[in-house]
Structures are given as structure tokens and as C-alpha cells.
Amino acid sequence: MHPRDQFERLRDALPEDLRDPVSFLYFSGWHVSEMRALEWRDVDLEGGGIIRLRPDLSKTKDGRPLPLRRELAEIIDRARERRIPECTTVFHRDGRPIALFRRSWATACKKAGLGNILVHDLPRTAVRNLVRAGVPDKIAMALSGHKTRSGFDRDNIVAEDGLARAIENVSDHLAAQPQTPAIVLSLKKRSA
Q1: pLDDT for 51-72, tens place per residue?
Q2: Which region among 100-114, 133-147, 172-186 has the lowest average model confidence (pLDDT)?
Q3: Does pLDDT of 160 surpass 60?
Q4: What global pTM score does this model have?
Q5: How far apart are CA 68 and CA 71, in angstroms?
Q6: Which domain CATH number covers 32?
Q7: How many folded domains does the chain comprise?
């Protein structure tokens, strides 16, 4: 099963008020604490559709922009429709900021038949998706908030299907090369 299919099964098994916050994590690469603290003052819908994560909210203490396009824009649009004026956070449960949701998460993982998946696997998945989509590492690091190459590499876990795809790509590349006569090297022993 494709990882996106697994994610969608998991998302659909969650309570409805957690589906968009978890989808936000999947598409943004943000950490749970960053998503939970996101406030409407950080969202600029008129200025091109962008979220500006404040440094004090960031796990790395560096602010960063997140352009709102496609799925992310749809998630924020739905959050805006459910907005409660007295609640400052973008994602909430009945007007209260989202607290820990370990029990709901564990129940959804079990329902989706996915075993023991960590919520922190969502930012890792976002990093892998960025890399597989051909996004340059520097841009992927900026979007996901990675300060160091080692941290980025730790989250960009190489899966076996990625290794198999790499071997297939090399084989395809070599098969597409023009056929040229082989160069034979002769290794003659020099006489003394």
C-alpha cells in the first residue's frame, strides 16, 4: 500500500476535529507543538496566503514562512470556517486549543491497521515527500525547520522502496545509453 493511502486511512479513522490538524502536519512538516500553538495572527491570507511561524513557537527557535497552496490552503480555509472568535488558535477542539491526543491517535492507528505509528512520523514523512518530489534539500530544510544537515538526514529515512527505485532508475539510465563498442584493456606484462 502506498504511504499516502496509509495516511488517508489513518486520518479518516481520527475524530473529525483532529483530521485537519493531523493533515496539516503531514503536508507541512511542522512539529505537533508548532501546529498546536499556531494562532490566527500568524496566518496572512491577504498577503499571498502564507503562515509565518514565530520564532518563539518554533522548535528550533527560528521563525519560518509556510506558503499556503493546494492542500494546506484547503486545510486553513476549513479552519477559518470553523473559527471561533474567542479562540486564538487555528486548530482547536470546541474552542479550546488542541491538547495531547495520544489516545485518539492510538485508536486511529489500530482502526487503520497500521500498528504503532508515532505522530512524529508525520514530519518525517513530509521531509521524505519533499525529497521524493525533487525539492532541493536546502528548500526542504527551510520548510521543515531543520537547522542542520544531520537532523534533516535523520528525518529523511531511506526506505527499501526508495533503494529499489534507485536501482531501477540506474538500470533505466544505462539501458537508454547509446550502444558503443566496448573498450578492451590489455594488461600485458612488461618484459624486463
Answers
A1: 888 888 777 677 788 888 999 9
A2: 172-186
A3: no
A4: 0.73
A5: 8
A6: 1.10.443.10
A7: 1
Residue 174 domain-assigned (yes or no): no
At residue 92, the pLDDT reads 93
Q: How far is CA 67 from CA 71, 93, 96, 139, in A?
A: 11, 24, 26, 12
Q: How far apart (Å, rounded) are the C-alpha atoms in residues 89 and 37?
A: 7
181 CB-side CA count, 13 A = 3
Q: Which domain holds residue 79?
A: 3-155
User: Cell triple for residue 106?
Assistant: 492510538
Asked whether residue 116 is domain-assigned, the answer is yes
Q: Return the C-alpha cell found at 21.
A: 490538524
Name the residue type at position 180: T
Q: Which helix (H) or strand (E) holds 96?
A: strand 96-97
Give me 30's grid cell: 511542522
CA distances from 94 to 1, 14, 153, 178 (A): 34, 16, 38, 64
- For 140-176, b/e burial (b = at least 16 CB within 10 A) is bbebbbbeeeeebeebbeeeeeeeeeeeeeeeeeeee
Strands 64-67 and 50-53 come out as antiparallel
